[in-house]
Specification:
The complex is a heterodimer. By secondary structure, chain A is mainly beta. Chain A is built from no helices and eleven strands. Chain B is built from no helices and eleven strands. Chain B has strands spanning about 5, 10-15, 20-25, 30-40, 45-50, 55-60, 60-65, 70-75, 85-95, 95-100, 105-110.
């Protein structure tokens, strides 16, 4: 079955530590996105990539970094510069257009 | 003012009721309107997609868009306990920038 796989499901970060969230898709989609979801707030765009080796900042990119070395993969690194990283992180993709397909999410918490 | 406003609820209804969910927006450039359903600690799934103004029906679900009022709605007929979830409205004028509402938490009681 085609879909988007996010791992891990739960992740804990120590102060000063960088952590990487994985996102893999087998939908053959060109565009991939990372969103952050906080309670009571809408999804906010962190980064997006429309083609391999190219990505753009979204609304809240500070403290995050991404790479897009393969069409199928779009990992997100939460750096130590992100002072409030606790949130539910969602990866999404589209084949062109506005219909986003989402992964099952990663809950990141701070120890 | 937020670009997309959505009442977070929570909303609780008895099984079989008609549910009305809505969002307002401020950006007149939005052309594409969507509703997503999100179960607890899961990724959102696309429920309804509408381009520009008008109505769209899919089974028990009806989406309405009124661009003149900058107002969109989702109606659920004969609501079921399995409809209990958070419903997110989303809209866009550019595929790279989809704006989401905060989500409305719905509980349908048996």
């Amino acid at each position: 079955d085609g879909g988007i796989t996010q791992s891990p499901k739960y992740l804990f970060r120590k102060e000063g530590q960088n952590v990487t969230l994985s996102c893999e898709q087998n939908l053959n989609h060109d565009a991939m996105y990372w969103y952050r979801q906080d309670p009571g707030q809408g999804l906010r765009l962190i980064y997006y990539s429309q083609i391999v080796n190219d990505f753009q900042k979204g609304d809240i990119a500070e403290g995050y970094s991404v790479s897009r070395e393969k069409k199928e993969s779009f990992p997100l690194t939460v750096t130590s510069a992100q002072k409030n990283p606790t949130a539910f992180y969602l990866c999404a993709s589209t084949g062109g257009g506005e219909k986003l397909f989402f992964g099952s999410g990663t809950q990141l918490s701070v120890l | 003012q937020k670009e997309v406003e959505q009442d977070p609820g929570p909303l609780s209804v008895p099984e079989g009721a008609i549910v009305s969910l809505n969002c307002t927006y401020s950006n007149s450039a939005f052309q594409y309107f969507m509703w997503y359903r999100q179960y607890s600690r899961k990724g959102p799934e696309l429920l309804m997609y509408t381009y520009s103004s008008g109505n769209k029906e899919d089974g028990r679900f009806t989406a309405q868009v009124d661009k003149s009022s900058k107002y969109i709605s989702l109606f659920i007929r004969d609501s079921q306990p399995s409809d209990s979830a958070t419903y997110l409205c989303a809209m866009s004028g550019d595929p790279r920038w989809v704006r989401f509402g905060a989500g409305t938490r719905l509980t349908v009681k048996p």
